[in-house]
Amino acid sequence: MYGKCGNLTMAQSLFHQTTQDIATWNSLISCYADSGHPFKALTLFDELISGLKPNTATLVTLLSACAQIASVDKGRKIHDYIREQGFEYEVSLATALADMYAKCGQIDLAKEIFDSMNEKDVVSWNVMISSYGMHGHGKSAIDIFQQWKKMVLDQMTLHFLLSSQPVLMLDWLMRPSLYLIK
């Protein structure tokens, strides 16, 4: 609660007064990452792994912190840790990896992660569409969109598509289609 309100000092103090399990570590790391202190969140990762094993929620938050500061080196370190520890690439973790690589300018690595995913959700697809749009690859954003088998769009999908290639996308969306927008 204190972290969500921006009182990181109190959040840190409470952390030290409680049992330090993975849930309390995740809370503290999230507090720092969500409050604009991604470097501190990443520093806490080094402390955490000296005593506990992070879980998927921890790793997703840390990958988001890497993306905030565009640190592909720190992101690779976490990716290596994920591989070494044998974490399953669940949808949320694989999506966070793809997002981190894309935001760090490594769109090919993001696509590689995306392509390796056995299961994808709307967030996964939106990450790749926005990644291509963010890096000026509007045509690739549309190509990814066209590969999407379950055409249930959300507002973010349309936003990413329209911002990546507005004229081409508007023309394409005006065609009679079977797309459903939530």
UniProtKB/TrEMBL annotation:
It holds the Pfam family PPR. SUPFAM superfamilies: TPR-like. Keywords: Repeat. It comes from the Eukaryota. Gene3D superfamilies: Tetratricopeptide repeat domain (1.25.40.10). One of its GO terms (molecular function) is RNA binding. This is Pentatricopeptide repeat-containing protein, mitochondrial. The keyword Acyltransferase does not apply. Signal peptide: none annotated. The keyword Translocase does not apply. PPR repeats lie at residues 21-51, 121-151. NCBIfam families: PPR (TIGR00756). One of its GO terms (biological process) is RNA modification.
